[in-house]
Write a structure and sequence with these properties.
CATH superfamily: Peptide deformylase
Strand order of the largest sheet: 1-2-5-8-9-3-4
Order of helices and strands: HEEEEHEEEEEHHH
Bound molecules: nickel (II) ion
Largest sheet: 7 strands, antiparallel
Strand content: 25-35%
Structural class: alpha+beta
CATH architecture: Alpha-Beta Complex
CATH class: Alpha Beta
Radius of gyration: 16 Å
Length: 182
């Protein structure tokens, strides 16, 4: 089922996600609906907050994005990205690696808005997957950026909160009033 994606100004986007204790039928149905919703909206990531459910769950699929490549490592070995996508991250924790670099981002909750955001280029992730198994990996490129963007959603943080002063200047007042300084 395609879910409604809530947009900027909606209180669910500012809610910190509750930790998930149990993977039950309802959660698996939500994951399936979120995947359908993300693909229909042509997005590379979606957090539960964006469908009005503040819990520690996000999904990502960067497979097929050729102009912004990603690399993923498990146990220090490079893995085939296609085999790992789509990715379901439950209760994720991040370790950020490297000096922040600017890169363009959009968000399904901000239709049409694109802005440069500085983020560390590499990330180490610890999460639980949809089968309840531990998922530990490192990523760079678009995947590292997408993971950080979605992780932020789970904390109630939005990409407009992370703009440089210069990028913020370019933003319409319509969006600027929703900025919360992290
Ligand atoms: Ni987003």
């Amino acid at each position: 089922m395609i879910l409604e994606i809530v947009e900027y100004g909606h209180p669910a986007l500012r809610a910190k996600g509750r930790k998930i204790e149990k993977i039950d039928h309802d959660l698996l149905q939500l994951i399936s609906d979120m995947l359908e919703t993300m693909y229909e909206a042509d997005g590379v990531g979606l957090a539960a907050q964006q469908v009005g459910r503040p819990i520690q769950l996000c999904i990502i699929d960067v497979d097929g994005v050729t102009d912004r490549p990603s690399t993923m490592w498990i146990d220090g070995k490079k893995v085939d990205l296609s085999e790992e996508m789509p990715m379901v991250l439950i209760n994720p924790e991040l370790e950020l690696i490297g000096k922040p670099k600017a890169g363009v981002e959009g968000c399904l909750s901000f239709p049409g808005l694109r802005a440069d955001v500085e983020r560390p280029p590499r990330v180490k992730v610890r999460a639980i997957d949809a089968e309840g198994q531990p998922l530990v990996f490192e990523a760079d490129g678009l995947l590292a950026r997408a993971v950080q963007h979605e992780y932020d959603h789970l904390q109630g943080v939005l990409f407009i909160d992370r703009l440089s002063a210069k990028e913020e200047q370019k933003l319409d007042a319509e969006y600027r009033k929703y900025i919360v300084r992290p």
